[in-house]
Specification:
Distance between the termini: 55 Å
Strand order of the largest sheet: 1-2
Family: Belongs to the lyase 1 family. Adenylosuccinate lyase subfamily.
Catalytic activity: (2S)-2-[5-amino-1-(5-phospho-beta-D-ribosyl)imidazole-4-carboxamido]succinate = 5-amino-1-(5-phospho-beta-D-ribosyl)imidazole-4-carboxamide + fumarate; N(6)-(1,2-dicarboxyethyl)-AMP = fumarate + AMP
Largest sheet: 2 strands, antiparallel
EC number: 4.3.2.2
GO molecular function: (S)-2-(5-amino-1-(5-phospho-D-ribosyl)imidazole-4-carboxamido) succinate lyase (fumarate-forming) activity; N6-(1,2-dicarboxyethyl)AMP AMP-lyase (fumarate-forming) activity
CATH superfamily of the largest domain: Fumarase/aspartase (Central domain)
Oligomer: single chain
GO biological process, one term: 'de novo' AMP biosynthetic process
Amino acid sequence: MQINPSLSVLNAVSPLDGRYASRCDSLRPYLSEAGFMAHRVEVEIAWLIGLSDAGLPEFPAFSADSRKILNNLVINFSEADAEAIKVHERKTNHDVKAVEYWLKDKAAGHPELERASEFIHFACTSEDINNTSHALMLTRTRDQIVLPQLKKLLEALQAIAHAQAAQPLLSRTHGQPATPTTLGKEFANVAARLRDAIAGIAAIVPLAKMNGATGNYNAHLSAYPEVDWPAFSARVLNQLGLKQNIHTIQIEPHDWMAQLFDAIARANTILIDLNRDVWGYISLGYFKQRLKEGEVGSSTMPHKVNPIDFENAEGNLGMANAVLRHLSEKLPISRWQRDLTDSTVLRNLGVALGYCMVAYDSCLRGLGKLEVNAAAIDADLDACWEILAEPVQTIMRRYGVPHPYEKLKELTRGKGITQEALKAFIVTLEVPQDAKDRMLAMTPRSYIGLAQELARKI
C-alpha cells in the first residue's frame, strides 16, 4: 500500500491526530511542537527584556520601539516562524540553540537589538528555557482548556442531580437490591467528587527555575558578581506568572507536574466510575438514548442502540491515565544533575491531555443524549418490597422487639417478598400503633431518606 507522506485523518499513526483530531484542536497552540517553540521564544524574550532593565553597564534598557519588536515576536509567532526555527535545528541538532539563532536573525537590521544580541540566552542552560516553557504550557492548558471542560461536565452532572432529585431509584450493593436512593442523588455523589477533584487540580502551584546549568547561578556570577541573581530570576518568573523554585539541579524537579498529573488522573478515575455506572443503568433500561438519524448500533442487529459515548470516554480516560501516571512517576527522577529521559517523555504532554479532551467530549455527548425511563426504574422498585426489611427491623430494634434482624432475615433473605406478606408481618409486631402505621405506609419508592434534599444541595 502506498501512503501519502502528508498527515491526514486516514494515515495518522495516533487517533489523536487522526480520528479524534478535531477534538484536540484546542491543545495545539499550547502543546504542539510549534506551541513549544512559541513558549520558548516568549521565555527567551522575557529574560532578555529583564536583563535590559537590570542596570547592567554593558546593556542599557531597551527603547519602547525595541520592546515592541520583541513583544510582537511573541504575539505574532506563526507556523512559518516555527519552520524557520526547524531550519536552524536541522543544522544545530539542538532545539533551544535553534531558537536562540532565530532570535538573532530577527534582531538583524535593528541596531539596538543587534548590539544586545549576545545577551540572548545569556547565562542560561537549555533547561532554564524549557522548564519555564513547560510550566507556562501546562498552566495555560490547565486553566484555559482542561478546567473549563471539567467544569462543563460538573455542570451537566449538577443539572441531572437537580432535575432527577426526586426520582426514586433502586440501589445496588454488590450488584444486589439495596436501600433505595434517588437518581439525582447518584449524580450528586459524582458531582461532589468531581467538584473536589477540580479544586485539587486548580490548587497546584506551577514552579520554574532559571538558575543555570546546575542550579547555582555559576555563569551568572562569573560575569556579574554584584547582581542578586536569585532575586532577578524570581522577578522574571513572577512576571510570567510563575513561582520560583530556588533549590534545583539542572532540571526543575517536576514534583509540581507530578502533582498536577496525579490530580488530573484522580478526576479521570472519578469519571471512569461515572461512565461505568451510567453504562450499567442504560443496560438495565433506566436510561434511553436519543437517536441520531442514520446511526447504526450493530452491523447485524438492527435494534441496538449502543452506549458508545460512555464506552469511548472510559477507554480514552484509561489511555490518558496510563500516560499521566507514567509522567508523574518518571519526571521527578533524574540521574544525578539530569539526563534526557525527562525531555523525551515531556514531548507527550499533548498525548496525555489529548486523550483527556477526547474522553471529556465523549462523556458530555453521552450525558446530553440520556433520557430517563422512569417507568422502568419505578417497576424495579415496585417489585422489590424486601428492601423494606431494613427500616422494619430498625424500628423493631427501637422498641425492643427481640431478634429483629434474624426475623427479617428469615422472612426475606435470598427471596422476593410481596407487599401483602410484608404488611402481614408488620401487623403482628408488638410496637406502638403510630410506628406500625408508619411502617405500613412505607413503600420502596418512599423509602429514600434525605436523598432528594442531598441531591438538591450539590
